[in-house]
Design goal:
Chain A: This is ABC transporter permease. Chain A: Pfam families: BPD_transp_1 (PF00528). Chain A: Keywords: Cell membrane, Membrane, Transmembrane, Transmembrane helix, Transport. Chain A: It is a multi-pass membrane protein. Chain A: Its main location: membrane. The complex is a heteropentamer, with 1 copy of chain A (385 residues), 1 copy of chain B (302 residues), 2 copies of chain C (263 residues) and 1 copy of chain D (304 residues). In chain A, 76% of the residues lie in helices and 1% in strands. The longest helix of chain A is centred in the middle third of the chain and has 36 residues. Chain B is mainly α and 302 residues long. In chain B, helix 10 packs antiparallel against helix 12. The two termini of chain B are 33 Å apart. Chain C is of the alpha/beta class and 263 residues long. Chain C contains 8 helices and 9 strands. In chain C, strands 5-6-7-3-8-9 form a 6-stranded mixed β-sheet, with helices on both faces. A 3-stranded antiparallel β-sheet of chain C has the order 2-1-4, covered by helices on one side. Chain C is globular and about 50 Å long. Helices cover 38% and strands 16% of the residues of chain D. In chain D, strand 6, helix 5 and strand 7 form a beta-alpha-beta unit. In chain D, helix 1 crosses helix 10 and helix 10 packs across helix 11. The chains are: A mainly alpha (385), B mainly alpha (302), C alpha/beta (263), D alpha/beta (304). At the A-C interface, helix 11 and helix 12 of A face strand 5 and helix 3 of C. The structure holds adenosine-5'-triphosphate (ATP) (2 copies), the ligand Cc1ncc(C[n+]2csc(CCO)c2C)c(N)n1 and magnesium ion (2 copies). The ligand Cc1ncc(C[n+]2csc(CCO)c2C)c(N)n1 binds next to loops of chain D.
C-alpha cells in the first residue's frame, strides 16, 4: 500500500494521541507551584488516548470508508470528548491545560472530521436513512464546535465575563425559561412577526404596483437599493422617537429593513418570465391580470422566497438592535444589553442562543414552504455533480 | 432649434432613462419630507408657543417647525446646510468634518469587505468541492447570521481588545462577519451554476478540479459574485458603523450617529445617516462599474 | 388561383429591420405573400433567414418596419385580440410549474372555458400527439421530443382557424414525425384550417403543403413559391411519386441557389 | 515612564475633565506616567474591559462595581474623586407629580446597563413595585437622550445634574416646568465615578505606587479643572474625537461637576457604608446579596 | 467480420437503470455491441430510447448498472483519463464568456498544448465547419446552427481517435447538413477515426455509416444492426441507389417494429 492511500486523518489522530500520552497534560499551578495532573493518574483519559492510538492506526491502514467505520470512529471520539471534559472539571485541569491535552483535542478533531466525512458521503436509497444521515452531519458538527468552545474556554481559563463556556450558558438557559419565554413573546411574537408580515406584504403589493408603472420602476428601484444600504442603527433611534418604546417601533424598523429586499426581488421576479412564455401568453391575448396570475407570479416565486428567507434573519436582528435604543423592560434585545452591564454574560449568551434558534427555525420554516411551493424549480431537482 | 424635432424630445428621452424618473421620485420624496417635518414637529412647537403664552398663525407655525433646533424630523434644508458645513466648509482633517469621519469608517469598511469577500469565496469553494463541508458547514453558515452580531459587537470589541487587537481591526471583524455571508451564499450558487452539460464537457476532457474551476465554475459565477459584492459592500459599511458605536467617543460615522442621538441632535443624526447612505451608494456604484468592466471582458451581451 | 377564395394572410412589401447595438439587422425585406383559407403553406430556407421572424410578424409578436400586412382583413393586433390563431413555438415553452395537462388547458383557462370542457379537449389533443398517460407529469420529467409534442397539443386544444407552427417536429424521430405529419394532414383535411408551417426538411415540406415558400438568406426574401396539387387526403406513399421528387428537387435547387447567393 | 490605561464609563465629556486636564497639562508626565484614556460608550462595560485586560484602572459607579464583584470580577475602589451623586429623576410638572407618593401608575425612564441599581434600590425602599402593575411604576429602558420626556412618552426620566437636565432645558422647557428628585435629597444617593482596579494587582507594591501617582496627578487635574472650568472644557473638546460636543454644554457641565467633587480622592467610609446598605436593602431582589469584603482600600490614597 | 480488426468499444449485456423519485427508469437493457477500429456506427431510435445514455456510458459520463464495457481494452474511466475521445453534445454547450476561437481551443488548453499549436488547430477545425471569419465572435452572436458547428469544431480540434457525436446536425438546414456530412465522411476516410453517431434522420444514418444500430423504445435495446458496404469515399449520389433505398427501408421497418412493440 502506498503512502497516498493511507487515511491521513486517522494517521493524524493516532500520532497526536500518541504524543498526547508523552507530553505533559497540564501546566503548573502558580500558587502551589505543583504540577496539576498527570495522565498516569487518570485511567479514563489514558484509556481514551490509548484507544485513539489503536483505532487511529487501525483505520489508517484499513481506510475509513464504510458507515460502520464512521460510527466506530465517532464513538471513540465521543468517549474521548467525555474523558477530556472530565479531566478538565474533575481533575482540576481547567485553566492549566498543557500541550498533552491540546494534542489529544487535535486527535479528537481528526477523528470527528473523518467520522463526519464518512457519514456526509453516505448515500442510501432508503429515504429515512438518508434523511437521518443528512441530519446527523450538521448536528454532530455543531456539537463538536460547542465542545471546542467549552474546552478552549475552560482549558485556557478565559474569564467568564468575557466568554462563558457553553455548559454554563446551557444551564442558564434551562434555569431562565420564564424570562426567555417572556422576552421571546415580546420580541419575536409581537415585533418580528408583525413587522415581517407588514414589511414583506406591503413591499409585495408595492412591487406589483411599481411593475405596472414603468416610470416608478425606473425611479424607485435605484433609490430602493440605496435605502437598503442605509445603516439601520441610524434608523432605529428615529423609529423609537416616532413610534414609542413598545413593539411598534421595532416593527417599524423591521418594515424598513425588509421592505426593499422584498421590493427589489419581487420586481426582478416579475420580469423573470421568459420572453417566449410572454409571447405565448400574447398569442392567447391574455389580459394583464390573467398573465400576472398564470405566468408572472409563479415565475416570480423563487425570487419572492429568496427575499422571504433573507428577511427572516434580518427581521430578528432588526428587532433586537432596535431594542437597544429604548424598550419596556422585557425583550431579547433589552435583556442582552442590560445583562452585559450586569456582568451576567451567560444570560446574554442564553438570549443569543435563543435568537439563533428562533432565527434558524424561522428560516427553516420559510425554506420548507419554499420547497413545497416551488418544487418545480430546477434547483430542487437531484444534482448529479 | 428650429423646424421639426427629430426623434424623441429631450424630455421624453430623459424620462425614459433612469435619471429622469429618479429625480422626479426624489422631488416627490422631498415634498413628502417637508410635509412630514411640519406635521411631526408641530406638536412640540405648539407646546412651546403655549408655554410662552404666544399666539401664532399657521404660516408662522410652518416656518418655525422647519427651523427648530432639535426637531423630531429635521427639514431637508436643515440637513443640507449641516452637511454643507461639515463636508465642504471645514478642513477635512478636522474632527468636525464628515469627510474625516467617513474616511475613518470607510477604511474599516474596506478592510472588512476585503477579508469578508476572501473568506466568503474560500468557504464557497470549499463547500462546492467538499461534500462534507457542504453538509456540515452550510447549515451553520446560515445559523450564524441569525445571531444578532450587532448585539454582541461590543463584546467582540472588548474580547479582541483583551488580546491586544485594537483600532481598525475589531471594526473590520464585524464587517467581515456581516459581509462574508452573502458572498458565500451567492458564490455557492454561482459555482454550481454551470449546466450539467458544461460540466460533462469538462469531464470528457478529463479536466482536473482546478481546471474546471478556473475555466468553467469561476467564470460562470462572476455575475453571482458581483451581485453579492454589491450587497456585501453595503452591509460591510453597516458593520463598520456598528463597530464604532461601542467605542463611543472615537471617530467615524457611527460615532457621529451615536453622539448625535446622545445629545438629541437630530440634524446631526440625519446628516451622518445621509452621508452613510451616499458612501454606500458610491461604493455600490464602484462595484457596479467593476462588474461592467469584467463582464465586457467576458464578452457578455450589454 | 380562383379569386373567390378568402385571403387569410395578406402581406405586401413587408420588411423588418432589427435595430441592434452593432447596427441594423435586415431580417426581412420586400416580402409579398398571400395565404388563402385552407392553404397549408410551408416555409423553408437556411437557418437565420427570417422564417421565425415572418411568423412572429403574422402573430403580432413583432412589428414590421415597412409594408402592409392584414390577417382576415384586420391588423395582426386585432387578430391576436380575437384569438385568431394557435402558435407552436420552435422551443416547447411549457410552464414548469404546471403539469402537462394543465399546460395544455392553459389557453382554454384564459379563454374562460368551463372545466369539464377543458379537460375533455386536453384529453383529445394529448391523444392526438400520443401523450395520453402523461397528463400528471411535469415538463422536466419528459424528454425533449415529448415536450415539443405537448406544446403542439396545447396549440391544437383551442381549435383556432389559423395555425402557425415553427419547426414543430424538429426534435422528433422519423417515425413519430411521420405519424404526426399524418395526423396533422388529417386534421387539416377534416377542418379546413389554414396552416403556416416552418420546417428544415424538404420532404416534409413537400409532403404536407399546398404551397411551399422558399426563402433566401438574410435579408429574408421569398425566392420561390411552389404550389403542389396533391389531394388533401394524401398518404405517405406519394413520397415515391416522380411528381413529389420533382418538386423536392425544385425546392432543393431554390435553396442551393440561395446559399450560393450568400457566399 | 509607567504605562497606565484608564477606561472611562462614558464618552469624552467634562464629566471626566480632571483626567484629560492632567493629561493635557502634563501632570501625568510629571508623575512619570504614560497614560492612555479610552473613552467608553453606551455598550462598554468597564468591568468587562478590565477583566479582559484592556485597562489597568476603570471609572465606574459603586453599585455596578460591587455587583460585578459578586459576579467574579474582583474590583477594588482605590479612590473616590466624586463625593456626591449627580443622579436625579426629572418629571414634567404638568403630569402632576409632586412627590414620590405620586409615582405609582406612572411611566418612568431609567438607564440600564448597570446604571439601574440606584433606581431599583430607591423604588424598593419606597416599596413601589417596578413590574408595571397598577400600584407599581412602568419602567422604560431609556435611550441615549431625554426625548421620552419631551415627547411625553414618559412622565419622568433619569437625568444627571450635569448633563441630561440641561438638555431638557435646552429643548425649551424652563426649570419651572420641571419637578426634579435628586437622589442625594431622597437619601438614596450612591457613590458615582470612583476609580477601581483588580484586587490581585494591589499585591504588587510597584502597582500601588503607580496608582498612587496616578490618583495624585488626576486629583491635581481635577483641582485645576475646578478652578478653570472654561479652559478645562476646551481641553475636553480637544480630546473629543467625534467633534460633536459643544463648548456651551461642556462649560456648563464642568461647573456642575465641580459641585460633585470632593476635597480629596480618599473614599469616605461612611459614604461607602451608606451605598452598601442601600444596595443590600433591595427587598426580594437586592443588587448585592451580602456585605462585600475588601471592596475598597486606602492603600493607594495613603501612599500619596 | 475479420477478427483481426481491433475492438474500440466492447459492450456486453450492458444495462442502466436511473433511480428517480418516482421509481426506477430503465434506460438501457441488455445491450451487446462491438465497435471496431475505423467503424462509423450510427445509432437511430425513437426519442427517449437511450441513445444519448449509451453514448454517455461509453464516455464515462454515466455509470452502467449492469454488464461490461471496455474502451480500447480499458474501462471507460481510464479511457476518459487518457482523453481517448472527442464528444459532441446534443446542445452546443459553448462557454458564453469565450470567443468562438477560445471555445475551440479550450480542450487544447486543458491538455496543455502550446499557444501557436492551439491557434493553428483551431483555424483548421473552424475552416472545416466553415466558420472561419467568426473566430473573435462570441457565441450569442451566432445562430443556433453556427453554434452547433462551433461545438463540432471543438471536438475535432484535438484529434481523438474516437468521436462520439450526439445528433450533431440536428439544428441545421439540409444544405449545410449535406455539406457537413460530406466533410465528416472525408475526415473519416482520411484519418481512420472511429465514430459513434446519433441521428434521427434515416438517410443520414445510411449515408454516413458502416454500421447502423437500430434501437427500441425504453428500455433501450438493440433490435437490429445493419452493416453497409459503401466505399469510404462515397458521395451524395449513392442516395439514389437501390441499395441505399433498401437499407433505408430496412431501418425504417426496424424503427416501426420498435414503435409498435411499444404500444
Ligand atoms: N430580436 C432580434 N434582434 C436582432 N436580430 C434578430 C432578432 N431576432 C432575430 N434576429 C436576426 O434576424 C434573422 C432572422 O432570424 P429568424 O429567427 O427569423 O431566423 P429563422 O429563419 O427562424 O432561423 P432558424 O431556422 O435558425 O430558426 C437572424 O439573422 C437573427 O440573427
Ligand atoms: N438523469 C436521468 N434521470 C432519470 N431518467 C433519465 C435521466 N436521463 C435520461 N433519462 C431517461 O432515460 C431515457 C433515455 O434517455 P436518452 O436521453 O438516452 O434518450 P435519447 O435516446 O437520447 O432521446 P432523444 O432522441 O430525445 O435525445 C429517457 O426516457 C429519459 O427520460
Ligand atoms: C444607555 C445609556 N446609559 C446610561 C446613560 C446615562 N449616562 C450619562 S452620563 C452617565 C454617567 C457615566 O459615568 C450615564 C450613566 C445614558 N445616557 N445612556
Ligand atoms: Mg426559427
Ligand atoms: Mg439524446
Amino acid at each position: 500500500m502506498t503512502w497516498t492511500k493511507l487515511d491521513k486523518f486517522c494517521l493524524v489522530a493516532a500520532i497526536a494521541a500518541l504524543l498526547a500520552l508523552i507530553f505533559p497534560l497540564a501546566g503548573v499551578d502558580g500558587d502551589t507551584g505543583k504540577q496539576v495532573a498527570f495522565v498516569g493518574d487518570i485511567p479514563g483519559l489514558a484509556a481514551a488516548m490509548a484507544l485513539s492510538v489503536i483505532v487511529g492506526s487501525a483505520f489508517t491502514w484499513l481506510g475509513a470508508r464504510s458507515i460502520t467505520a464512521g460510527m466506530i470512529i465517532l464513538a471513540v471520539a465521543v468517549f474521548g470528548c467525555w474523558q477530556a471534559l472530565s479531566v478538565l472539571y474533575d481533575h482540576g485541569v481547567a485553566g492549566f491545560a498543557g500541550l498533552g491535552f491540546w494534542l489529544f483535542i487535535l486527535s479528537l478533531w481528526a477523528f470527528v472530521w473523518r467520522g463526519i466525512d464518512v457519514i456526509a458521503n453516505y448515500h442510501s436509497l432508503d429515504r429515512t436513512k438518508q434523511h437521518l444521515a443528512n441530519f446527523v452531519v450538521p448536528v454532530a458538527f455543531g456539537v463538536w464546535l460547542l465542545f471546542v468552545w467549552e474546552v478552549v474556554v475552560s482549558g485556557f481559563g478565559v474569564p467568564q465575563v468575557l466568554l462563558p463556556p457553553p455548559s454554563m450558558i446551557g444551564e442558564r438557559f434551562v434555569n431562565s425559561t420564564d424570562i426567555l419565554a417572556a422576552d421571546f413573546h415580546q420580541t419575536f411574537v409581537k415585533a418580528v412577526l408583525s413587522g415581517y408580515v407588514m414589511g414583506c406584504g406591503s413591499a409585495f403589493i408595492v412591487a406589483i404596483a411599481v411593475d405596472r408603472v414603468p416610470f416608478l420602476k425606473r425611479g424607485l428601484l435605484p433609490l430602493g437599493n440605496m435605502v437598503s444600504a442605509l445603516p439601520i442603527i441610524g434608523v432605529a433611534p428615529i423609529m423609537v422617537m416616532w413610534f414609542g418604546f413598545d413593539w411598534q417601533s421595532k416593527a417599524a424598523v423591521i418594515v424598513i429593513m425588509t421592505f426593499f429586499p422584498m421590493l427589489v426581488n419581487t420586481v426582478t421576479g416579475l420580469n423573470a418570465a421568459g420572453k417566449l412564455e410572454k409571447d405565448l401568453m400574447a398569442t392567447y391575448a391574455s389580459g394583464y391580470w390573467s398573465t400576472l396570475f398564470r405566468l408572472r407570479l409563479p415565475a416570480a416565486m423563487p425570487f419572492v422566497f429568496n427575499a422571504l428567507k433573507i428577511n427572516s434573519t434580518l427581521a430578528l436582528i432588526g428587532a433586537i438592535v432596535a431594542e437597544f435604543f429604548g424598550t419596556p423592560i422585557v425583550g431579547m434585545g433589552f435583556r442582552i444589553s442590560t445583562e452585559v452591564g450586569r456582568m451576567n454574560i451567560d444570560m446574554v449568551w442564553a438570549e443569543i442562543a435563543l435568537a439563533a434558534l428562533a432565527g434558524t427555525a424561522f428560516y427553516g420554516a420559510v425554506a420548507y414552504i419554499e420547497r413545497k411551493a416551488t418544487s418545480w424549480h430546477p434547483s430542487f431537482r437531484v444534482r448529479r455533480h | 432649434m428650429t423646424g421639426s424635432v427629430r426623434g424623441p424630445s429631450t424630455w421624453t428621452r430623459m424620462m425614459s432613462g433612469q435619471t429622469g424618473p429618479v429625480c422626479v421620485v426624489l422631488i416627490a420624496l422631498l415634498v413628502l419630507w417637508y410635509v412630514g417635518a411640519v406635521f411631526m414637529n408641530a406638536p412640540t412647537q405648539i407646546d412651546r408657543y403655549n408655554r410662552a403664552d404666544q399666539t401664532w398663525t399657521t404660516g408662522q407655525l410652518i416656518e418655525d417647525t422647519l427651523a427648530q433646533d432639535r426637531p423630531i424630523l429635521p427639514a431637508p434644508h436643515q440637513v443640507a446646510v449641516e452637511m454643507y458645513h461639515t463636508i465642504f466648509a471645514i478642513k477635512i482633517t478636522s474632527k468636525r468634518s464628515l469627510v474625516y469621519h467617513s474616511w475613518v469608517t470607510l477604511s474599516s469598511t474596506l478592510l472588512g469587505f476585503g477579508i469578508g469577500t476572501l473568506l466568503g469565496v474560500l468557504l464557497a469553494v470549499g463547500i462546492v468541492h467538499v461534500m462534507t463541508l457542504e453538509k456540515s458547514l452550510m447549515p451553520w453558515v446560515i445559523s450564524s447570521q441569525t445571531i444578532p452580531i450587532l448585539a454582541i459587537a461590543p463584546m467582540i470589541i472588548v474580547v479582541l481588545g483583551a488580546i491586544g487587537i485594537k483600532g481598525l481591526v475589531p471594526k473590520a471583524v464585524i464587517s467581515t462577519y456581516l459581509c462574508f455571508f452573502p458572498v458565500t451564499i451567492s458564490m455557492v450558487k454561482g459555482l454550481r451554476s454551470p449546466q450539467v452539460i458544461q460540466l460533462d464537457l469538462m469531464r470528457t476532457y478529463n479536466a482536473s478540479k482546478w481546471q474546471t474551476f478556473w475555466q468553467l465554475r469561476l467564470p460562470s459565477a462572476m455575475p453571482y459574485l458581483f451581485a453579492s459584492l454589491k450587497v456585501a459592500i453595503a452591509i460591510s459599511l453597516v458593520g463598520a458603523i456598528v463597530g464604532e458605536l461601542p467605542t463611543g467617543a472615537q471617530a467615524g460615522l457611527g460615532a457621529r450617529l451615536l453622539a448625535g442621538s446622545y445629545y438629541g441632535q437630530t440634524i446631526q443624526i440625519w446628516s451622518a445617516l445621509l452621508t452613510a447612505a451616499f458612501v454606500a451608494a458610491i461604493l455600490v456604484v464602484i462595484v457596479g462599474w467593476c462588474e461592467r468592466r469584467v463582464l465586457v471582458r467576458m464578452g457578455v451581451k450589454s | 388561383m380562383p379569386a373567390s377564395k378568402k385571403a387569410v394572410v395578406d402581406i405586401k412589401k413587408l420588411s423588418l429591420t432589427f435595430q441592434t447595438a452593432d447596427g441594423p439587422v435586415y431580417a426581412l425585406s420586400d416580402v409579398d405573400l398571400t395565404i388563402e383559407e385552407g392553404d397549408f403553406v410551408s416555409f423553408i430556407g437556411p437557418s437565420g433567414c427570417g422564417k421565425t421572424t415572418l411568423l412572429r410578424v403574422i402573430a403580432d409578436l413583432e412589428q414590421a418596419t415597412g409594408g402592409e400586412i392584414s390577417i382576415n382583413g384586420v391588423t395582426p393586433h386585432e387578430a391576436r385580440e380575437k384569438r385568431a390563431y394557435g402558435y407552436v413555438f420552435q422551443a416547447p415553452a411549457l410552464l414548469p410549474w404546471r403539469s402537462i395537462e394543465r399546460n395544455v388547458t392553459l389557453p382554454l383557462e384564459i379563454m374562460e372555458i368551463s372545466k369539464e370542457e377543458r379537460v375533455k379537449r386536453a384529453q383529445e389533443a394529448l391523444k392526438l400527439v400520443e401523450l395520453n398517460g402523461f397528463e400528471k407529469k411535469f415538463p422536466w420529467q419528459l424528454s425533449g421530443g415529448m415536450q415539443q409534442r405537448a406544446s403542439i397539443a396545447r396549440a391544437l386544444s383551442f381549435d383556432a382557424d389559423l395555425l402557425l407552427m415553427d419547426e414543430p417536429f424538429g426534435a422528433l424521430d422519423e417515425i413519430v414525425r411521420d405519424h404526426l405529419n399524418e395526423q396533422l394532414l388529417k386534421l387539416w383535411a377534416r377542418t379546413n384550417k389554414t396552416v403556416a408551417f416552418v420546417t428544415h426538411s424538404i420532404p416534409e415540406a413537400v409532403y404536407l403543403s399546398s404551397k411551399i415558400v422558399v426563402m433566401s438568406p438574410r435579408p429574408g426574401r421569398i425566392i420561390d413559391v411552389i404550389e403542389t396539387d396533391f389531394p388533401k387526403d394524401r398518404t405517405l406513399d406519394i413520397r415515391e411519386t416522380p411528381e413529389f421528387l420533382e418538386i423536392a428537387h425544385r425546392v432543393r435547387e431554390g435553396l442551393r441557389a440561395g446559399h450560393s447567393n450568400d457566399e | 515612564a509607567d504605562e497606565v490605561t484608564l477606561q472611562l464609563k462614558w464618552v469624552t465629556q467634562a464629566q471626566f475633565a480632571g483626567y484629560y486636564v492632567a493629561l493635557d497639562k502634563g501632570f501625568y508626565e510629571e508623575a512619570d506616567l504614560d497614560v492612555t484614556i479610552n473613552p467608553g460608550g453606551p455598550d462598554v462595560a468597564p468591568p468587562q474591559v478590565i477583566a479582559g485586560g484592556g485597562a489597568d484602572v476603570i471609572i465606574d459607579w459603586m453599585p455596578s462595581a460591587l455587583a460585578s464583584r459578586e459576579k467574579g470580577v474582583p474590583l477594588v475602589n482605590i479612590a473616590q474623586p466624586f463625593a456626591k451623586s449627580g443622579m436625579m429623576l426629572t418629571c414634567l410638572k404638568e403630569t402632576g407629580i409632586e412627590s414620590p407618593e405620586d409615582f405609582p401608575g406612572r411611566t418612568l425612564g431609567v438607564w440600564f446597563f448597570g446604571n439601574e441599581y440606584p433606581f431599583l434600590s430607591w423604588m424598593s425602599k419606597l416599596g413601589i413595585p417596578t413590574d408595571g402593575g397598577d400600584n407599581g411604576v412602568t419602567v422604560l429602558k431609556q435611550g441615549f437622550n431625554v426625548d421620552p420626556l419631551l415627547q411625553k412618552q414618559a412622565d419622568c426620566v433619569s437625568t444627571m445634574t450635569y448633563n441630561e437636565y440641561w438638555q431638557v432645558i435646552d429643548a425649551g422647557l424652563s426649570p419651572d416646568d420641571l419637578k426634579v428628585f435628586k437622589y442625594e435629597d431622597q437619601g438614596v444617593a450612591t457613590l458615582e465615578d470612583g476609580l477601581y482596579v483588580l484586587e490581585d494587582n494591589l499585591e504588587d507594591p510597584a502597582f500601588v505606587d503607580k496608582m498612587a501617582r496616578f490618583v495624585d496627578a488626576s486629583m491635581k487635574g481635577w483641582m485645576w479643572a475646578k478652578e478653570n472650568p472654561e479652559d478645562a472644557a476646551m481641553i475636553v473638546l480637544d480630546n473629543d474625537m467625534t467633534g460633536a460636543q459643544t463648548e456651551k454644554h461642556q462649560v456648563r457641565m464642568m461647573k456642575e461637576i465641580a459641585k460633585l467633587l470632593g476635597d480629596s480622592a480618599v473614599l469616605d467610609e461612611a459614604a461607602y457604608q451608606r451605598t452598601v446598605d442601600s444596595l443590600l436593602s433591595g427587598g426580594s431582589d437586592p443588587v448585592i446579596t451580602k456585605e462585600p469584603e475588601g471592596a475598597w482600600t486606602h492603600a493607594v490614597t495613603d501612599k500619596m
